[in-house]
Amino acid sequence: MKDLVQSVELEVSQRKRLQVSQPKVWLKNELFRVGLAESLCTYVMMVLGLGSVAQVVTGQGVFGEYLSINLGFGLGVAMGVHVGGKVSGAHMNAAVSFTMCTFGRLGWKMLPLYVFAQLLGSFLAAGTIYAVYYEAIYDYCGGNLTVTGVKATAGIFATYPAPYLSLLAGFIDQVFGTAMLLLCLMALSDQKNKPAAAGSEPVAVGLLVLLIGISLGSNSGYAINPTRDIAPRVFTAIAGWGADVFRSGNGWWWVPLVAPPIGGVLGAALYRVLVEMHHPPLSEQDGGLVEEFEEETTPLEKQGNICANICV
Questions:
Q1: What pLDDT, in 10s, does the model give residues 118-144?
Q2: CA of 97: how far to CAs of 132, 211, 304, in Å?
Q3: What residues have CB less than 8 Å from 105, skipping those under 6 apart?
Q4: Of the candidates 29, 117, 103, 91, the residue with the CA atom closest to the CA atom of residue 310
Q5: pLDDT tens across 13-56, in order?
Q6: What's the rounded Cα separation, in Å, for the pair 197 and 295?
Q7: With helix as H, strand as E and coil as C, how does the chain read?
Q8: This prediction's pTM
């Protein structure tokens, strides 16, 4: 008995030594936590996405092709969801945040915080990729930073339309691409339908972005994200490309800024009207499904709960 007591005491003392002490300083304010997480996950997504573009462009096809860019952004989104998914919901896209506000999944008071965090993360990511690929960019273009032409490099950071694309066609392209994004995101988070399996949400969202890039990317680079496009565009204007980043493509810059929020709301509304509103009540489902619906949550729903607690 004495040996048993000594053994238990030894085990307890060893566990105490292994315990990690709680940090003395940490953020308790939910707004700060959400803002920091949203900035960081956007930064991660943008660094990996823009980095893939820089590698393809400066490598002149040796280090990747168009598919590499699709994979870079798709996997970048997946990593971003892992980084901030349980804290901010990892929107990483002002069109997503705006749509969540429109449908009551995010408080409107939170929208400025999300947009600012996304702009900050995108801007810093553009600066990081510029620094990392500085010598490669200058070696590729000979020090002549241009927006159009054979050796154009502004497209590493922001999106520009194909030469054949009109503003109207480009606007429709961006509305439709973002509508598909939000329609599918609504489906992935719909617990009464076929949502992404618990824990697989980052991969599912990343594959969705990859699919949009593969199928809807050639017209204008599938920005489908206002903050992803405008922040790096502003950076390039400051870094040496000048005002041409706003003049190019018949003043294209405003299209990725305005069209995606419209498309996001339309896509989410389409799913809601044609699918979500017609689900039978949970009480009509069998007991197993009811328990499953109650237990399972998704990043978008978790985000709605978080923001409801903050904004009410």
A1: 999 999 999 999 999 999 999 999 999
A2: 30, 21, 11
A3: 300, 301, 303, 304, 307
A4: 29
A5: 555 554 545 556 587 889 999 999 999 999 999 999 999 999 99
A6: 12
A7: CHHHHHHHHHHHHHHHHHCCCCCCCCCCCHHHHHHHHHHHHHHHHHHHHHHHHHHHHHCCCCCCCHHHHHHHHHHHHHHHHHHHCCCCCCCCCHHHHHHHHHCCCCCHHHHHHHHHHHHHHHHHHHHHHHHHCHHHHHHHHCCCCCCCCCCCCHHHCCCCCCCCCCHHHHHHHHHHHHHHHHHHHHHHCCCCCCCCCCCCHHHHHHHHHHHHHHHHCCCCCCCCCHHHHHHHHHHHHHHHHCCHHHHHHHHHHHHHHHHHHHHHHHHHHHHHHHCHHHCCCHHHCCHHHHHHHHHCCCHHHHHHHHHHHHHC
A8: 0.84
Phi then psi dihedrals of residue 303, to 5 deg: -65, -40
Q: What are the tokens at 214?
A: 């593969």
